[in-house]
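The material for today's practical consists of a large collection of protein records. Read left to right, the backbone structure tokens trace the chain's path through space. An example says more than a description, so a record of this kind follows:
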Amino acid sequence: QVQLVESGGGLVQAGGSLRLSCAASGGTVGSLIMGWFRQAAGKEREFVAAIRRSAGWTYYAEPVKGRFTISRDNAKNMAYLQMNSLKPEDTAAYYCVGDSSPLIWPESSYFSQRSYNYWGQGTQVTVSS
């Protein structure tokens, strides 16, 4: 069973940067589709970013395009979310997700939380204005 553990959250001023890390155990990051979701207080959980297993293809939610970058380091068995130019509306609990499905997903599946079987416990990001 794959376990994912996030770290790197915290309090940052608007315009600042944070890098979230996701450590995988019980499986290899290279064999997983990886992603990040977030949930702000009182709101629905929403997709942030995802990365395919191969070729590094990435997907981003519109609000974070150009500011956030998802990546993976297979040698370290880690995934990352680099967040730049942070805004107060980025404040949320951020969840690392993964899935080991061998199937080729349609693009829409990367954006759906129902597609991912493995979830971390979340790390809080708070952006002050």
